[in-house]
Specification:
heterodimer, A: alpha+beta, Rossmann fold, Dna Ligase, domain 1, 5-stranded mixed β-sheet, 14 helices, B: 15 helices, 62% helix, globular, disordered N terminus, disordered C terminus
């Protein structure tokens, strides 16, 4: 196991230069007590001054003063409530709609770093798609010894029903939401690939909309990459995999109004101008085609952007008790009569054990060096690694290999002795279920807290689209912020907030984002 | 022109093209296939959004006007607050909640109780707030087919109506609250009128709206018909009552312009039942509903029901009805309206799909 990957790669990289822009006039800092150390902060450098790309923001906030800033936060909250931007949390089995939590202080990322990230994300998704396709065909990666056989056939995300299927262009994961983080030196890492039903893009788009209304004046100071093109690119990606000629009929398939991401499903259907369907709205007939129950009878559906998990898609094939899916849907998909986006089975490539092999997967399929860095990962199934994990548990993050949403994650340094002991037992009982990673000192961004602006930990979820005709990466992404001091948990399902994220034209040290392409 | 939402959609129903299909087993792309469709479930959601929005606005108007009229009448001459419950069709629900609880079945219903019940009372599924909530839920479901701004306006109206509910407990605050509801509903209508394509979803919304409107006008007339039953009696407050009827349907000014007579039973009835231009007159609602149905596929049965109802209304012997039999007649109208809803429901929202083979247009 290669645990030296990071240091080996990073050794060659210079530290970020912190040269201030020459024309910057000295200004009183907007938040005199703001101190992000020992973490890397997106807007504030170690000497307490603005980073070059954040200077205009910095001056503006200094002029604005804390009261006006608080007022704008109130205005933003009001707008989000009025727009009906919500997410659903489950409390004791009851779903409650909450207004989307949004912090008005934007996060700024220099474009030169973003270009590296963009290239890296496309490279990564291309390789992962080749890997998925291989998993359901010859499994060349297994026979070549790149990944162990167990990683594929032993995975709970391996779908036997997908073996031999050829989706258009060999693409299984058309939409990927990647989680990126930065360490205490500002280096970017991929933390997770989400290839199943990644959510969050609606909030990315809505955050920008709200920011434009709350800080219209700031858009004069910056040339900010727009995020709007995503929807058009999503539409053309969906259309590009249609099995029919002519204008395809596209639908978004939602589990229903009680799903935590229902807002997003409705938002995307509205933005795409397509119908939002539930399982009960669709039917598969003997011709293996999928039809929607419309006011004009049954109408053929060509592309389903499904936001329902694999196992609920088709009660004939997967969970027979599922009422969310469509009986016969897998049959229609395998017959090539309907496109499913993402394809069933794509999740084989996004569990946390596969994650540790992604650099090798990229080298194997693309014969390229990975552009983006990954975090060294101990697989607890390996006896040697397991011993080390159990030994150093307090200094590691332990994660279940197949969960998402931040559930089941244990941060060793923040855990009680009882929690550590329980985690150790869980690892020994089912080593296969767990991976561990060193604790990354997650970067921070200035965040409006109760009555002050304070550093809070952030991550970033950009979205990558991939179709037979090409790829697209959102400019920036959804920044999620842990609102409690010291907390590393950014998931909105667990109290995290969000920020608008600007990719701006300002020179920086692009090598922070990854190796040479 | 403000209160009416929708003109008849242009264009006629297109019959499913029989020319597209398969040639030697290869699907031939059908040029008619536009990539847009309307789910039965969405159609139902927008239909009910239309009905609930109309009910919220209609109820708000009636409560507001009743409050005004009540103030105009000397104590003892007023008609109390029960008629409001009858118009909303919730008298028994009210009795169950309030009068049974207090054991004062004979006493007149207290103003505060009636108002509370109509605005937001627990157990009243057609209270203004319950209607707004239902409209919002339906628009939420139908978000993909209605303009974003319309959903936002509805969400906002729902939020503010909840936030400011406290103020509705005084007569003065109540006027403000009701005005906000009326203006909010009009704002949503305006957005729909100004930004929504005249598509099938719009037709269902307008259909729901017009059926609800016709229903409400019928019920207002039914409850007020009581005061007709003293033929020839020179009730000095007769005009006040009929003015209140017209005002509660926003019909006073249009009535004045259209009818030379002062508001009395006969002229008011004729206007509110048979006028074809005033958007809240039953006749006009039915004409509009039928025009919307014509734009929808498979609407023949519902159109027939609509025409049936139109004929019932158009043939109303208005002069005779002022002397007696109005209640029975209005019951027939209500039944005819119910039949339209029934057929819309069967045709679009609850079809069995048995025997619904994919049409050529669907391929």
């Amino acid at each position: 196991m290669d645990l030296t990957h990071r240091s080996a790669t990073l050794g060659a990289v210079e530290h970020p230069s912190q040269t201030a822009a020459p024309e910057a006039a000295p200004t009183a800092p907007p938040w005199p007590t703001y101190d992000p150390s020992p973490f890397y902060d997106d807007l504030v450098g170690p000497d307490g001054t603005a980073r070059p790309w954040a200077e205009a923001l910095w001056h503006h906030f200094a002029e604005l003063g804390p009261e006006a800033l608080a007022e704008r936060q109130v205005a933003a909250d009001r707008e989000i409530r009025a727009l009906g931007v919500t997410f659903t949390v489950y409390d004791g089995g009851v779903g409650v709609d909450r207004p989307w939590p949004f912090d008005i202080i934007p996060r700024v990322i220099p474009r030169d770093q973003w270009q590296v990230i963009e290239a890296g994300l496309v490279q990564r998704l291309a390789a992962l798609n080749l890997f998925v396709d291989d998993c359901y065909h010859d499994q060349r990666a297994v026979s070549a010894g790149v990944v162990p056989a167990d990683l594929v056939s032993g995975s709970p995300n391996f779908r036997r029903e997908c073996v031999g299927v050829d989706p258009p262009g060999g693409i299984w994961a058309h939409i990927c939401g990647s989680d990126l983080i930065r360490d205490d030196e500002g280096f970017w890492y991929v933390l997770e690939d989400n290839l199943r039903v990644p959510s969050g893009v609606s909030y990315l788009l809505e955050n920008r909309m709200v920011t434009k209304h709350i800080f219209p004046e700031m858009f004069r100071h910056y040339s900010i990459e727009p995020v709007d093109p995503y929807v058009g690119r999503l539409a053309s990606t969906l259309a590009s995999v249609s099995p029919s000629t002519g204008d395809p009929t596209i639908v978004v398939l939602t589990p229903g109004v009680f799903n935590s991401a229902y807002f997003e499903h409705a938002f995307l259907a509205q933005q795409l101008g397509v119908e939002l369907v539930e399982g009960g709205d669709l039917v598969v007939l003997d011709d293996d085609c999928v039809y929607a129950r419309t006011i004009d009878g049954l109408e053929r559906v060509d592309v389903i952007y499904r936001r329902v998990d694999d196992l609920f898609l088709d009660p004939e094939v997967f969970r027979p008790d599922s009422l969310l899916g469509v009986p016969g849907l897998m049959r229609a998909w395998k017959a090539g009569r309907v496109a499913l986006v993402n394809a069933p089975g794509a999740g084989i490539a996004d569990d946390k054990k596969v994650y540790s092999y992604v650099p090798d997967i990229i080298r194997f399929y693309l014969e390229e060096e990975p552009i983006l860095w990954t975090i060294p990962t101990y697989r607890c199934s390996d006896p040697e690694a397991r011993a080390r994990v159990l030994d150093e548990l307090a200094d590691l993050v332990v994660k279940p290999a197949n969960e998402s949403g931040g559930y089941g994650v244990l941060v060793g340094s923040q855990a009680s002795p009882d929690e550590l002991a329980a985690a150790a037992r869980a690892i020994e009982d089912e080593p296969n279920r767990w991976v561990a990673q060193p604790i990354i000192k997650l970067s921070t961004a200035p965040t409006l807290c109760a009555d002050e602006v304070a550093p809070r930990h952030v991550d970033l979820r950009p979205f990558t689209l991939m179709g037979p005709d090409g790829a697209y990466v959102t400019r920036g992404g959804l920044t999620r912020v842990a609102r409690r001091e010291g907390s590393l948990v950014v998931n909105s399902s667990q109290g995290g907030g969000s920020k608008d994220t600007w990719v701006v034209d300002s020179p920086s040290d692009a090598s922070l984002a990854g190796g040479p392409a | 022109m403000t209160a009416d939402l929708l003109g008849a959609p242009g264009g006629s129903t297109e019959s499913p093209g029989a020319d597209a299909g398969e040639v030697d087993g290869i699907a031939v792309p059908d040029e008619e296939r536009s990539g847009t469709m309307l789910l039965a479930r969405m159609a139902e959601a927008v239909y009910w959004a239309g009905r609930h929005l109309e009910r919220a606005e209609g109820t708000a108007r009636i409560v507001q006007v009743h409050t005004d009229a009540h103030v105009d009448l000397p104590v003892g001459e007023d008609v109390g607050w029960e008629p409001l419950l009858a118009i909303a069709g919730v008298d028994s629900e009210f009795a169950e909640r309030y009068q049974a609880a207090s054991g004062t079945e004979d006493a007149r219903a207290a103003e505060e109780d009636v108002i509370e019940f109509l605005l937001h009372g627990a157990g009243n599924d057609s209270s203004i707030l319950a209607s707004l909530t239902a409209a919002r839920e339906n628009l939420r479901t139908a978000r993909p087919v209605v303009p974003r701004e319309a959903w936002e306006a509805c969400n906002n109206l729902w939020l503010s109506s909840n936030d400011l509910l406290e103020e509705a407990h005084t007569r003065e605050g109540r006027v403000r609250w009701l005005r906000r509801v009326i203006a909010g509903c009009q704002c949503i209508h305006g957005i729909l009128l100004g930004t929504m394509s005249r598509d099938e979803a719009m037709s269902f919304l307008a259909l729901g709206q017009n059926i609800e409107r016709a229903d409400l006008t019928t019920r207002v007339l039914d409850v007020r018909s009581d005061s007709l039953h003293a033929p020839g009696a020179d009730d000095p407050y007769d005009v006040v009552h009929w003015m209140a009827v017209l005002r509660s349907l926003a019909a006073y000014q249009p009535f004045r312009r259209a009818m030379p007579a002062r508001p009395q039973g006969g002229s008011t009835l004729r206007f509110l039942l048979q006028d074809d231009r005033f958007p809240r007159a039953v006749g006009a609602c039915l004409t509009e509903a039928r025009a919307q149905l014509k734009a929808l596929p498979h609407s023949e049965r519902a159109q027939d029901a609509c025409q049936e109802a139109s004929m019932v209304v158009a043939s109303a012997p208005v002069a005779r009805l002022t002397v007696g039999g109005l209640s029975e007649f209005l019951e027939d109208v209500e039944l005819a309206l119910g039949e339209i809803h029934q057929r819309v429901d069967e045709t679009y929202f609850r079809p069995s799909f048995v025997g619904w083979e994919p049409t050529a247009a669907a391929r």
